């Protein structure tokens, strides 16, 4: 699969689960909406074996990954939600 950039702001790379209620990807989507953060979504393949673009971006293949408009990519739903909750609608400058 080819890496595609859809960056009009922040980009959330997430699994194909079609609801925000069941998995870590949905938890991040809910946190972004709650904080009023504008973002694009990219659904990645279900199988990790087919997530080469996530590996190129982060060095690992799990999602969610939030690619910030400043260029950094943050992995792990807990870290991402902490970042969103700490920064409110301004998550462009992560602090850690
Ligand atoms: N601890 C991680 C878990 C992430 C996770 O399990 N992501 C799922 C999608 S919601 C995944 O990538 N599953 C594919 C796999 O583990 O093979 C987090 O909270 O972000």
TrEMBL record:
PROSITE patterns: GLUTAREDOXIN_2 (PS51354). CDD domains: GST_N_family. Pfam families: GST_N_3. Gene3D superfamilies: Glutaredoxin (3.40.30.10). Residues 22-86 form the GST N-terminal domain. InterPro entries: Glutathione_S-Trfase_N, Thioredoxin-like_sf. This is Glutaredoxin. It comes from Conexibacter arvalis.
